[in-house]
Amino acid sequence: MKIQSDILVIGSGIAGLSFAIKAAELLPDKKITIITKNTKEESNTKYAQGGIATVYDLTKDSYEAHIKDTLIAGDGLCDKEVVRMVITQATKRLDELLNWGVSFDKNQDGEFDLGKEGGHSKNRIFHYKDVTGYEIERSLLKIVSQKRNIDFYDYHYAIDLITEHQVFGDLISLDSDKTVFGAYVFDEKTKEIKTFTAQYTLLATGGSGQVYETTTNPFVATGDGIGMAYRAKARLADMEFIQFHPTALYNPGESPAFLISEAVRGFGAYLRNNKGERFMKKYDERMELAPRDIVARAIDTEMKLHGSKYVYLDVTHLDYNAFVKHFPNITKKCESLNIDIKKDYIPVAPAAHYMMGGIVVDKNARTSIKNLFASGEVSRTGLHGANRLASNSLLEALVFSHNAAMDIAKHFDTNYKLPPVPGWIDTSTDRTMEKILITHDRNEVKTIMSNYVGIVRSNERLLRALRRLYVLYQDNKRLYDHSEITTDLLELRNLITTAYLIIEFSRKRKENKGGFYSIDFS
Length: 522
Ligand code: FAD
Ligand code: SIN
Known about the structure:
Blueprint: E1 2-4, E2 7-10, H1 14-26, E3 32-35, H2 44-47, E4 52-53, H3 63-73, H4 80-99, E5 125-126, H5 132-146, E6 150-153, E7 156-162, H6 164-168, E8 182-187, E9 193-197, E10 200-203, H7 224-231, E11 236-237, E12 242-249, H8 262-266, E13 270-272, H9 292-306, E14 311-314, H10 320-326, H11 328-336, E15 346-355, E16 358-360, E17 372-374, E18 379-380, H12 393-411, H13 435-452, H14 459-482, H15 487-508
Parallel strand pairs: 1-9, 2-3, 2-10, 3-6, 10-17, 16-18
Antiparallel strand pairs: 4-5, 7-8, 8-9, 11-16, 12-15, 13-14, 14-15
Succinic acid is lined by residues 49-50, 259, 261-263, 390-391, 393.
């Protein structure tokens, strides 16, 4: 089946949805199609807790301060122009969210109740309790459902981008300029592979936390956009920089790991080791509110020093009622595990959380492939450098999706003619594979990455990871070439590709920066 539209959006988190709304408004007579691989709301966005960093009241905060905090966290590798562009646009983008019906908490005086997180010199995090992402996803989906020129396909999994390679065959791909014409998409319900074509395609497929054993990211975060872009030969960068969130709840067997928001430390919580000591003073004068890479490494060191699997977050000294008001979901979760936050410490450990690298884009979210845009966690904009400042991610997605929509509206070619895009060529022999093999392989990728490509790396560990991953790559290729397509198989292919890229980019880095740390360069 062929489905033609003007703009194809892959992914329904904050990047995909905010882009689609904007594009639908700017181009009311054009058809926008969103596809997403699971339910409409499933995404990293849905689980965002802390909120959105925005300078709103210039009498209390300043763009310069937010810019400085972002640059410090990024450890010297941010693109300064991009940082300035994003941070000075934040107020407008936040106003738009308010217009779209997103609620943010206010205090008794009717002013926005701004939270604080690691690396921020001011309280500037707009939040809705501790479920900000859920509130954003809810509101954006409602607006999308009201747009007559947006079609939405859930349980539709993008397999690969369509470029000249699929249209004209191998010979033409010697030409270095490529154009995207849409994507081949697996309909999970009918098992059909459909051809979605469009003049423009936006990749908004989010992150890849699922390459690690312990992650805050939901099961859909399997690096699919990275895999698709890599196979289409788009430019990628900074893949070695993985952010580990310092404080995921330690609850063996729970996957994904439940996050204890950094805003809890911003609210005054202490970190303690298993002897009850506040250890952060040994590592950074900013203590619990140092940037995330520093806190996560400090926790990792303490855990190794004391042979423990977690450290503690202590909120016992905080105003309980005020805490429950700001963090009702976290309180509920702790209660469900019989952790009485009035007297018990909360066990926490670092977990893979965010991918700083990704598809290289310019300020308008254009990739190196013509007509292909990327926004959100899948992209590498230059905002985060080697380490993302807390709560800058939702903001980044809003700004780049806005810029992409403006750019596309400006350049939209009404005389555009699609080339003759062929349907998907099925080379499988219809051999059904044992699902358990895929589960084993997925677990192996996670083990390799967690054991050898985690918070602390070394050349030796990376080489081991590469060798072991290669075996999985070969097995997956055999399965992929001959078996019937399933979502599990497709995800495994992208997990292996993403893991490979994290390892290879890590092997090329010869200096410790932000989210990359190797004992060979310490
Ligand atoms: P996502 O929201 O992950 O959306 C990706 C979409 O693409 C999903 O709909 C997914 O199903 C779909 N998709 C993926 N692959 C395919 C495919 N092959 N075919 C079709 N569809 C596909 N950031 C902040 O700034 N502030 C916070 O407070 C914050 N808290 C966080 C808390 C948690 C627990 C987590 C996990 C992250 C948090 N982050 C936070 C990070 C932030 O949530 C993400 O970086 C951001 O939401 C990414 O948005 P996105 O639209 O790029 O991707
Ligand atoms: C958190 O609430 O700690 C997550 C914030 C973020 O990832 O930016």
